[in-house]
Amino acid sequence: MLNNVVTTSGLTKHYGSIKAVDNLSLEIPAGSVFGILGPNGSGKTTTLGMLLNVVNPTSGTFAWFGSSSHSDNRQKIGSILETPAFYPYLSAVDNLKIVAQIKAIGFGNIDPALKTTGLYDRRFSAYRTFSLGMKQRLAIAAALLCDPQVMILDEPTNGLDPKGIAEIRTLIKEIALQHKTIILASHLLDEVQKVCTHFAVLNKGKLVHAGPVFEHREQQLLEIGAENPEVLLETLLQFPEQLNAVLKNNLVTVTLPANLRVVNVSRFLFEKGIDITHLVLQQKSLETQFLEILNEQA
After folding, report:
1. Which of 215, 273, 275, 284 has its Cβ near the most Cβ atoms within 10 Å?
2. Full set of structural domains in the chain with CATH
3. pLDDT, tens digit, for every residue of 212-267?
4. Rounded CA gap, 138 and 117, in Å?
5. Is the pTM of this model over 0.85?
6. What burial class does residue 78 get, using C-beta atoms within 10 Å of its C-beta: 0-12 exposed, 13-18 middle, 19+ buried?
């Protein structure tokens, strides 16, 4: 069974003295919803462009489905890199027929794609009558025409109102249930948190973090004080479960695992004879973690 749909090794793109993507090595698991996250200008779109052979790498390699032969993989990948150009006076169906002819595929997937994207009831409406969210959904329908194994979406909710954003997020989840791998680039942390299973963070063209989203859910931080902070830290490191504990400014901060309650820690310290003088529970949001990742690389 194939574990990764795409791997990159040292993938690099320079525009003159600008390093748009710098030595990127990445693995994207099959069946995942993989978010490429980073501020504007971090190299997200350039990375997707190289994976789709519309941007030539300066150096490095990438492989789809374990093969470096990219021509064999075109029908397996559906993508939206920029705002699609549809004919405003044609209906959704007629626009998709043109896309199908360009891709040299039949019309058999047009109705299923329109149903998946929630546009079937408007299939005979002119494109110019569509809202921005509907236009984006039609673009996704176009990418679905070849029934791809992988969908690549660049900033799929960019410019949409809250209703349109919610619709696209729901659509991405529904497409993922069809056993497709989805790769999306976004600068919106909330988008990645709500729809992705895995994510990578790019900053100034460099990969600064990659991993499952569940490892970065909102964390609980327990701030503990005692008369002797060093002894407190040593005692916490003896806790039956491994704890991430750090001493700073005479207080020990503990990152609590999801299955651990504050009372378990305080009871342990009491049994070890530690008199607690300070005990505060704080929430560490995913946004805070993301900013910390970026600041570490600044």
Report:
1. 284
2. 4-89+143-215 (3.40.50.300), 219-296 (3.30.70.260)
3. 887 666 667 889 999 999 999 999 999 988 888 889 889 999 888 767 888 999 99
4. 7
5. no
6. buried
